[in-house]
Protein backbone atom coordinates (compact mmCIF):
# COMPACT_ATOMS: atom_id res chain seq x y z
CA UNK A 1 0.00 0.00 0.00
CA UNK A 2 1.45 3.38 -1.05
CA UNK A 3 1.83 5.99 1.65
CA UNK A 4 2.52 9.69 1.41
CA UNK A 5 4.38 11.37 4.27
CA UNK A 6 4.35 15.03 5.12
CA UNK A 7 5.75 17.08 7.96
CA UNK A 8 3.65 19.13 10.31
CA UNK A 9 4.33 22.83 10.88
CA UNK A 10 6.78 22.14 13.68
CA UNK A 11 8.78 19.84 11.36
CA UNK A 12 9.19 17.20 14.05
CA UNK A 13 6.07 15.06 13.71
CA UNK A 14 5.35 12.93 10.69
CA UNK A 15 1.90 11.67 9.87
CA UNK A 16 1.06 8.82 7.54
CA UNK A 17 -1.70 9.31 5.02
CA UNK A 18 -2.89 6.49 2.81
CA UNK A 19 -3.29 8.21 -0.57
CA UNK A 20 -5.14 5.23 -2.08
CA UNK A 21 -8.15 5.33 0.25
CA UNK A 22 -11.47 6.12 -1.42
CA UNK A 23 -12.21 9.11 0.80
CA UNK A 24 -9.01 10.79 -0.45
CA UNK A 25 -10.09 10.74 -4.12
CA UNK A 26 -11.80 13.47 -6.09
CA UNK A 27 -13.68 12.51 -9.26
CA UNK A 28 -12.67 14.90 -12.04
CA UNK A 29 -13.80 12.69 -14.91
CA UNK A 30 -16.54 15.11 -15.98
CA UNK A 31 -14.41 18.27 -15.82
CA UNK A 32 -13.92 18.43 -19.58
CA UNK A 33 -15.64 21.63 -20.63
CA UNK A 34 -14.53 24.90 -22.14
CA UNK A 35 -15.83 27.60 -19.79
CA UNK A 36 -15.15 30.81 -21.71
CA UNK A 37 -12.99 32.53 -24.29
CA UNK A 38 -11.97 36.18 -24.36
CA UNK A 39 -11.23 37.09 -27.98
CA UNK A 40 -9.84 40.54 -27.14
CA UNK A 41 -7.45 39.28 -24.43
CA UNK A 42 -6.82 36.00 -26.29
CA UNK A 43 -7.42 33.89 -23.21
CA UNK A 44 -9.45 30.77 -22.62
CA UNK A 45 -10.72 29.22 -19.39
CA UNK A 46 -11.13 25.46 -19.41
CA UNK A 47 -11.57 22.58 -16.99
CA UNK A 48 -8.60 20.23 -16.38
CA UNK A 49 -9.72 17.35 -18.60
CA UNK A 50 -10.10 19.43 -21.78
CA UNK A 51 -7.77 18.07 -24.46
CA UNK A 52 -5.45 20.24 -26.49
CA UNK A 53 -7.19 18.91 -29.59
CA UNK A 54 -10.51 20.29 -28.31
CA UNK A 55 -8.90 23.66 -27.49
CA UNK A 56 -7.37 23.93 -30.97
CA UNK A 57 -10.67 23.05 -32.69
CA UNK A 58 -12.53 25.57 -30.52
CA UNK A 59 -10.05 28.43 -30.90
CA UNK A 60 -9.70 27.97 -34.68
CA UNK A 61 -13.36 28.98 -34.96
CA UNK A 62 -12.30 32.42 -33.62
CA UNK A 63 -9.21 32.53 -35.88
CA UNK A 64 -6.97 31.90 -32.86
CA UNK A 65 -4.62 29.04 -31.99
CA UNK A 66 -2.44 28.28 -28.95
CA UNK A 67 1.20 29.35 -29.26
CA UNK A 68 2.38 25.89 -28.27
CA UNK A 69 0.64 22.69 -29.32
CA UNK A 70 1.93 19.42 -27.84
CA UNK A 71 2.59 16.57 -30.25
CA UNK A 72 0.20 14.28 -28.35
CA UNK A 73 -3.25 15.66 -29.20
CA UNK A 74 -4.93 13.73 -26.37
CA UNK A 75 -3.01 15.52 -23.62
CA UNK A 76 -5.26 17.47 -21.29
CA UNK A 77 -4.74 20.81 -19.60
CA UNK A 78 -4.45 18.97 -16.28
CA UNK A 79 -1.99 16.39 -17.65
CA UNK A 80 -2.39 13.16 -19.56
UniProtKB/TrEMBL annotation:
SUPFAM superfamilies listed in its UniProt record? FAD-binding/transporter-associated domain-like
Asked if the keyword Oxidoreductase belongs to this entry, the reply reads yes
One GO cellular component, as annotated: membrane
One GO MF term on file is:
Delta24(24-1) sterol reductase activity
Q: Which UniProt keywords apply?
A: Oxidoreductase
What GO biological process, any one, is recorded here? steroid metabolic process
PANTHER family from the entry?
24-DEHYDROCHOLESTEROL REDUCTASE, DELTA(24)-STEROL REDUCTASE
Q: What is this protein called?
A: Delta(24)-sterol reductase
Amino acid sequence: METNYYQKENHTLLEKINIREEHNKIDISKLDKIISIDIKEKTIIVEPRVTMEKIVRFTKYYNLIPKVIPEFKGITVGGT
